[in-house]
TrEMBL record:
Keywords: ATP-binding, Helicase, Hydrolase, Nucleotide-binding
Name assigned to this protein: Helicase ATP-binding domain-containing protein
Species annotation: Hemiselmis andersenii
Single GO MF descriptor: hydrolase activity
Origin superkingdom: Eukaryota
């Protein structure tokens, strides 16, 4: 019996350590079901509760259930049926529902926060946004600005944009400047973009900006660069797409972003203009 009890506790401990706290409790409830063993059952329940409490506090993410744990840590291993309905706006693949919502948001010129893991399909919306602005017959000189925090990302994005749009792009960093104010798609770092927006000499150019894509928006929490990203958000003359794979508490962040957009909308309405909406795509 002591050996069997220890083996059972090992099972419960392993389940709790992996994050399956509810499964650990459920498994423990199947032990010592004999009414004559109430004392042992109570002792086991207390030990299981301590085990679960210990490992729950050690988990980086509070696992509310076994399905939650699986989705959080094993999503890439779970079977995923492909979408059945194609979207005429995308010819290269069939978008998921959340990606359709992204397309709708860009069509409506809304601001969007996209929180999704790396390689989950965020890049396509940037290209769709660029293509949308490039093909706008009413604004043939409209500009899309792509802001990335590092030069390494700038080089990567520049290669992708060149492959898709060829000579329509420009680059502006502290070390290199190419067609910054004459291109249709500008790829830049936050410092340079802020300087462009702050310069009165660039006021006419800023009015041409139709969309801004902010990659790695979680950098706004950085002690060194956070104020820079925040300042850019306040200066934006158009809707934006904010991308990140690691934003914590996105709901709170969206409320904060919405506050900025609401303030801008009030200013625009007071000046006789119109504002843009904001939506969240989880």
């Amino acid at each position: 019996e002591p050996v069997a009890s220890q083996a059972r506790l090992d099972v419960v401990t392993t389940l709790a350590q992996l994050g399956f706290v509810d499964a650990a409790v459920s498994t423990a409830s199947t032990f010592l079901t004999d009414p004559k063993q109430k004392a042992k059952r109570k002792e086991l329940d207390e030990e299981v509760a301590d085990i679960c409490k210990t490992f729950r506090s050690k988990l980086s993410v509070a696992c509310r259930s076994s399905p939650h744990f699986q989705l959080e840590h094993m999503g890439h291993l779970l079977p995923r049926p492909p979408p059945k309905t194609k979207d005429p706006r995308i010819s290269t693949f069939t978008p998921d529902e959340w990606q359709r919502r992204l397309l709708d948001a860009v069509d409506d010129r809304a601001s969007v926060l996209v929180c999704a893991p790396t390689s989950s399909g965020k890049t396509f919306i940037s290209h769709y946004c660029m293509d949308k602005v490039m093909g706008d017959a009413k604004n043939k000189d409209g500009v899309v600005v792509f802001v990335a925090p590092t030069k390494a990302l700038i080089n990567q994005i520049a290669a992708q944009v060149y492959g898709a749009f060829h000579s329509a792009f420009g680059i502006y960093t502290d070390a290199y400047r190419h067609r910054a104010l004459t291109c249709r798609i500008l790829i830049t770092v936050p410092e340079c973009f802020e300087s462009l927006l702050m310069s009165p000499a660039n006021a006419t150019w800023a009015q041409k900006i139709r969309y801004v894509i902010l990659d790695e928006i979680h950098c706004i929490s950085s002690r060194e660069e956070g104020s820079l990203w925040e300042h850019i958000l306040h200066l934006l003359p158009c809707p934006f797409i904010a991308l990140s794979a690691t934003v914590g508490r996105p709901e709170s962040f969206v409320k904060w972003l919405q506050g900025i957009k609401d303030a801008q909308k009030s200013d625009e309405e007071a000046a006789g203009g119109g504002g843009e909406g904001t939506c969240e795509v989880p």
